[in-house]
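Journal club prep — side note

Before the paper discussion, L.F. wants everyone to see what a predicted structure for a comparable chain looks like in token form. Sequence:
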Amino acid sequence: MKLKLLILLISLLSFNTYSQRITETIKSKKVNANREIQIILPRGYEEKKDQKFPILVVLDADYLIAPTASNIRYGVNFDEYLDFIIVGINQGANNDRNYDSEFEDIGIPSVNGSAFFEFLTMEVVPYIESKYRVQPFRAIMGHGLTAGFMNAFLYKDNSYFNAFISMSPVLAKDMETNVASRLKESKKPIFYYLSDTDGDLTEDKAKINILNENIKAIKSDNLMYKFEHFTDGNHYSYVLQAIPSALNFIFKGYGRIDKEEFNNRIMILEKNHTQYLIDKYKKIENNFGFTPTIRLSDFEAIEAAIIANGNSEDLIELSKLADKHYPKTMLGAYHMALYEEKMEDWGRAEKAYLKAYTMDPVRNLTKNMMIDRADIFKAKLKEHDQKRKDERNKKSKVTSDEIQEEVIEEIIE
């Protein structure tokens, strides 16, 4: 536990030193008040002119935004998470939190709750989308009252958010059944993370457990669900464990191919390694709503698996895929050269490596490497041609000797 707190402290200090954090005040017509929001942009946002980013709305930002941003930055650093434009809603003043999360006794948002709902969907998010480069993927996070309120976004036919991080939610009337019903009917992929702890109120835990059982019973390809019960920490402190766990759940399968995935899922394939890579990124596209460029390290992993399994024909498909994602680089030509090399067609291998030489270097592939490989197969081709010439000469000499022997035999006779 002390180690976890130390890591968190270091990450929070790092967060404060390099995150671009903006505080703005929105004059809201919906809640009829000035409301403060925090905006944290991805690192290098200004330099990444062509890149768009998903939005993460953090309710209870007064205490949730710092650990959330730190965890995201840490995961992004190792290419495990998408980087977010983080939008924090400060709710600690003027009893805003209670008014914002208010529900009627019949289980629907009150006047205050409905106003806050529209504040987020008609003012905050549209403002962010008009000012910054965003992808269509939206996530929302809350704790306690705000975690319960988030479920109202599922009550619409088309959920406004794609991912929900709900920590110890206080559930309104019938929410334990209504949420499950809405998740079951969803026509688009939804990530739903739910957690509680021993330190929560007994009544809240009972309703959360019912909600968990109802969601677990859902059979839908569009639902990605995880529930966690934490025994360490109280209602507030356990959140420091739940946040990274929730992010890991949402981005499972998004990260680059690691050692575990390579050994246990890719190397066991006899063929279709390139198709595995295509399917991996197609799933990312389906889940997050954008088409990512396949990582160079993932090309390298698939290339290694193809060669190790003797699945040389698959290098042709890998070459086509590389040309699609990295058209100006030598990657596709290099994979085709590898294929010709494995087929022992030295002439084609030489030409393919020479073609790669004319293109832009990428990964660990260099022009010197391509010309060196071309020279190797030029020499092999020359050696092969000389060998064939020698064999032809030898065969010709044998034939000539045989003719002479036949002539001599005829004379003798």
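L.F.'s comment for the group: The first strand starts at residue 20 and ends at 28. Keep this in mind when we get to the figures.
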